[in-house]
Amino acid sequence: MGIVLVGGRIVTAVDSYQADLRIEGEQIVAIGYDLEHPGDERILVDGCLLFPGGIDPHTHFDLPVGNISTADDFESGTKAAILGGTTTILDYATQFRGETLKAATLNWHRKADGRSYTDYGFHMAVTDWNMQVAQEMSMLVLKEGITSFKFYMAYKHTLQVDDESLLQALGQAKECGALVCVHCENGDVVYELVRQARAKGQTTPAYHPLTRPVTAEKEATSRVIALAQIAQAPVYIVHLTSEDALQVVTAAKLRGTQVYAETCPQYLLLNETCYQAEGFNGAKYVLSPPLRSRQDQESLWSGLRTGLLDTIATDHCAFNFVGHKDLGLTDFSLIPNGAPGVETRMGLMYTYGVVPGKISMNQFVNYTSTQAAKLFGLFPRKGTLAPGSDADITVWDPNGDSVLSVETLHQAVDYTPYEGFQQNGQVKHVFLRGRQVVREGQLHESQPRGVYLSRKSLPQKKG
Ligand code: URP
Ligand code: ZN
Ligand code: ZN
Q1: Could you tell me if residue 266 is left (phi over 0), alpha (psi between -120 and 50 degrees) or otherwise beta?
Q2: SS3 306
Q3: Residue of minimum CA distance from atom 2 in ligand 1
Q4: Among the atoms of ligand 1, which is closest to the Cα of residue 183?
Q5: What is the arithmetic mean of pLDDT over 68-91?
Q6: 3-51+391-443 classified as CATH 3.30.950.30
Q7: Which CATH code for domain 53-375?
Q8: Which of 183, 289, 345, 463 is 20 to 30 Å apart from 388, CA to CA?
Q9: CA distance linking residue 8 with residue 112, whole number of Å
Q10: How far apart are CA 422 and CA 409, in angstroms?
Q11: What is the pTM (predicted TM-score) of this model?
Q12: What are the residue boundaries of the structural domains of the chain, listed by start?
């Protein structure tokens, strides 16, 4: 017995066409016409668009930061994700200093296993690089299917690694077929600018962007690309925010370097004026790198239109305004960095990307699903609609407008940066490996049934 979705429009990164789709077990088995077998369930999806389930390759669920943890754990975060049309997330498991990668992996499995409504995989964020960790990197690739590793060039004294470590890590990654993901901001520069601001009594959230200038992002982006070229290793730039950093990436791509770049809805839809919000409200936008100028926003859209960027992730790292963000009420540098977005990504990118024609529908699918699957070793199991692929399907009804509000979203955090934003269209149904988990926009599954995804390596360019 199967399920047949009848009357929808199939949209992949390369095609868009009217056809029915048949699911059997966990997979798509056929796309075409007259697909029904006796006993099949028939679901009418007339006028709807069928997208491959969204893949968000950058989340932070249940992440401890100082004495607090992110508001969303795997249960609440993935429930919100699936209601927003995302069926796979890749979370940044994090090695804390002094820890082995094995311990960090076990720690993240304890947080996620049996609690995830989406399928999930882990990147490993490495904060304490040494030769033992280098060996463990290969083990994680081979044994755990963790094939991407994040390094921070910012957050001095907590997460930041130096260039020597980064170069060694890139070399090791090349050896073992891993992809290095990098947070690009010059952490020493940020540290000094924050020190100067505090010394002058500049303590409000408005100083957050001023102490993390575009040039610090540009310099770090340029430096890590140089290191990747020396190591002849591929590199993935996470949450790219600015025209300057995009120019650096573009120049490297034109030289043939295997460099990939991700941006996020917050950098496309919000800008530095948010830090002027009344009172302490600017703290809601304290995330790193910070929001940039209107011109940067336009450059990012143009980068998406022309294919210079590779993915749209969220960097979902949710902290409550009350109880978390207010730790920095008298000192912006103590505000925990990050913002929520896992539930709103697909709707926002459809509304503000596809509807006004800033990106095509195929690009929307490419950036929100297909490219992440390809870069992070999940394609063609995930990231497309094709016979043999997992039946992860987001049925999108392009009709029906709504207004985003924390009151109606499911993320376990007390604000959304997109309060009052209009959304065109809505998630109607979501299937995760053939099971209907969202029906008519409501959660239709009482149990978290997401499974851990052991991932393949990214093929590397020869030469
Ligand atoms: O402000 C942010 N982005 N917080 C999450 C951690 C990171 O830098 O990705
Ligand atoms: Zn980061
Ligand atoms: Zn992040």
Answers
A1: alpha
A2: coil
A3: 338
A4: 8
A5: 98
A6: no
A7: 3.20.20.140
A8: 345
A9: 34
A10: 13
A11: 0.98
A12: 3-51+391-443, 53-375
